[in-house]
Structures are given as structure tokens and as C-alpha cells.
Automatic annotation (TrEMBL):
SUPFAM superfamilies: SGNH hydrolase. It comes from the Eukaryota. Its main location: secreted. The keyword Hydrolase applies. This is Uncharacterized protein. It comes from Pisum sativum. Belongs to the 'GDSL' lipolytic enzyme family. GO terms for cellular component: extracellular region. Keywords: Hydrolase, Lipid degradation, Lipid metabolism, Secreted, Signal. It is found in: Secreted.
Length: 348
């Protein structure tokens, strides 16, 4: 076993045994979640799409079983909500009836992207633009509950978690048989176009009261197991993701100057998860997958799930989600979070 793999196994052991405890009030009064299948907790369950995970073996390690989470247990944002002190997981927008929406809503949707067309070859999804519209609806409901004078003060204190963009590559740019973007843009031009559209949504969130933004970069999408029979990563895909990340980090610096009453941070997902994503592809995935790279319904997954970085061919297992969540919340080195981590952001 080489040194890199040994380090990864140690990290897995440490974080797979981590326990999260809740003491007192949450560190922020509310948490709003925007993203894709990495954060989806059930918004796709009733959509006409192949991108859904409300069946076994998904959720095999989650207390409530399959919920629509694309992993065996907790997602990264589930773990972050634990670390923030919430005594419950933020409900999906599709299931907010009777819940306290003033404490937050999860708008994330599997296969969704920044661009409206992203992922639609699989069926319906809720793009970033539609997630923003859903947030407008929730804000109006919260305003009726708290009153117009108090709603902005409340929303200003919330954490806004945004983790989206992978599908704009995996389920758009690198699928030329379904989407024309690869023929219209080179990699740098596409990253510019994506970021330009993304920042319009971020500005819209700011106008709706958001002041604490946690923006997650893309992982090394060229190293996911889907479509691979060996340990080789597709460097073209990784370079594209890093282009996007560099531009997103620049947006963070720019917005921190343009909006002095707000704070934006960048979480460097690619660096945090680099070791886990470059392991032997033959042992990466835990569940038996179909041609779409997702788990085959009701097939028995692997037993030693803490040793498998991926649950299916696209989505990390809970143990990797724990690593990412802990490093994003309390970054041990500056390269993981810029200009600060989530634990410092929520204290502002």
C-alpha cells in the first residue's frame, strides 16, 4: 500500500468514527441550500427523471432509509448542519408543508446545473434559476410569518450554501451528443459563461437578503468512476473543473469588495477530496450500478462502505462527505477555504 493510500485510509478511519453533538441553539438561525445531487434530500423524488435516489440501497446507513439522498448515509450539508448545531436536517423544498421554513430550506436537485438545460436529457430537474424562484416563494412566506421589518434582519444572519456546477460539465459540456455547448465554447470560454450566469444568481440572493455565502468549488470530476475501467483520470475534465474553481474564487474576492456588508467564502473541494478521488477505480464504488452509473434498485451494496470513496459511479459515500464537511467547516490549512472556513463565517 503506497503512502497516499495509507494517508487516505487513516483519514477514513478518523472521520468514519466521528460523532456530532448538538449543544444549545444553532450557530445561525437558518440555512438555505442550493445545489445538485450532492445536496439533494428529496426534491427529485416526484419528478419525471432518472436522476432520483429514493430507493434502496441509497440511504442504507441513513436513519430514515431512502429519502432521495444520492449516497448511503449523510450528505456533506447534512453533516455541516450537524456541525452548525441544528437538531434536524433542513427539509427539501418539495416537502416543506408543516415545517419551520424560517430555519431553512433545501432547494438542491439531482442533475441540476447553473444552466437551465443541464441534465434535462435525464428528465426534469430544478436548475439554479428555478431554485432561486423557489427561494423567492419561501422568502415571501417567511415575510408573512415574521413581518416585513424583521424578515431582512433574519435572512441576513442565515448561511447560504451553494454547491452546483458539476452537472454543467458532466451532464452538459462533456455530453456533445445531447448538448451543443462543447462546440460553442472552449473550456475557458465555457467557464467564463458559467460563472457569469452564476454570479447573477448570487447577486439575486444578495438582493433577497443573503449576506453569508459558502460557495463550493467542483471536485476532480475527471476522476469519478463512471465510464472508466482503470485508475486513470480524464485530465481534460479535471482541467475544466479547475478553470471553473479559479474563476469562482476570483468572484469571491470581487464580491467581498463590492458588497462590504456581506461575506463570501470559497471551499476548495478539489483539493480537499483529491486523495479520495484518485484511488483505484476498481474498488471505488460500493453499490452495483446500471448503465446510468446509479445504483440498481434493491441490489445489496458492499459491506465495508467506509472503505469505498464512492457509493455509485458519481456520488461519494458518507465517509467522503464527512471529510469534505469537516474540512469545509474547520479548515486545517488555508488552501481548503478562502478567505475563511464556515466556522468563522457564521460567527461574523
Amino acid at each position: 500500500m503506497d503512502c497516499e493510500t495509507t494517508i487516505w485510509m487513516v483519514v477514513l478511519f478518523l472521520f468514519s468514527s466521528a460523532m456530532y453533538c448538538v449543544f444549545g441553539e444553532p450557530q445561525v438561525p437558518c440555512l438555505f441550500i442550493f445545489g445538485d445531487s450532492l445536496s439533494d434530500s428529496g426534491n427529485n423524488n416526484d419528478l419525471a427523471t432518472d436522476a432520483k435516489a429514493n430507493y434502496k440501497p441509497y440511504g442504507i446507513d441513513f436513519p430514515d432509509g431512502p429519502t432521495g439522498r444520492f449516497t448511503n448515509g449523510l450528505t456533506s450539508i447534512d453533516i455541516i448542519s450537524d456541525l452548525l448545531g441544528f437538531d434536524h436536517y433542513i427539509p427539501p423544498y418539495a416537502n416543506t408543508n408543516g415545517t419551520d421554513i424560517a430555519q431553512g430550506v433545501n432547494y438542491a436537485s439531482g442533475a441540476a446545473g447553473i444552466r437551465n438545460e443541464t441534465g434535462t436529457h435525464m428528465g426534469q430537474d430544478i436548475s439554479m434559476g428555478l431554485q432561486l424562484e423557489h427561494h423567492r416563494d419561501i422568502v415571501s412566506q417567511i415575510a408573512k410569518k415574521l413581518g416585513s421589518e424583521k424578515v431582512q434582519q433574519h435572512l441576513n444572519k442565515c448561511l447560504y450554501y451553494v454547491n452546483i456546477g458539476s452537472n454543467d460539465y458532466l451532464n452538459n459540456y462533456f455530453l456533445p451528443q445531447h448538448y451543443p455547448t462543447n462546440g460553442k465554447y472552449n473550456a475557458d470560454q465555457y467557464a467564463v459563461a458559467l460563472i457569469q450566469e452564476h454570479l447573477t444568481y448570487l447577486k439575486a440572493l444578495y438582493e433577497l437578503g443573503a449576506r453569508k455565502f459558502s460557495l463550493f468549488g467542483l471536485s476532480l470530476i475527471g476522476c469519478i468512476p463512471h465510464g472508466k475501467n482503470d485508475s486513470l483520470c480524464v485530465e481534460e475534465h479535471n482541467r475544466a473543473a479547475l478553470l471553473f474553481n479559479n474563476k469562482l474564487k476570483s468572484v469571491v474576492d470581487r464580491f467581498n469588495k463590492e458588497f462590504p456588508d456581506a461575506k463570501f467564502i470559497f471551499i476548495n473541494t478539489a483539493i480537499i477530496t483529491e486523495n479520495s478521488l484518485k484511488q483505484d477505480m476498481k474498488i471505488l464504488t460500493c453499490c452495483k450500478v446500471g448503465s446510468n452509473g446509479q445504483c440498481i434498485p434493491n441490489e445489496e451494496p458492499c459491506q465495508n462502505r467506509n472503505l469505498h470513496p464512492f457509493f455509485d459511479e458519481f456520488h461519494p459515500s458518507e465517509v467522503v462527505n464527512k471529510v469534505l464537511a469537516n474540512m469545509a467547516y474547520n479548515a486545517p490549512v488555508p488552501a481548503f477555504a478562502h478567505p475563511m472556513d464556515i466556522s468563522h463565517l457564521v460567527k461574523l
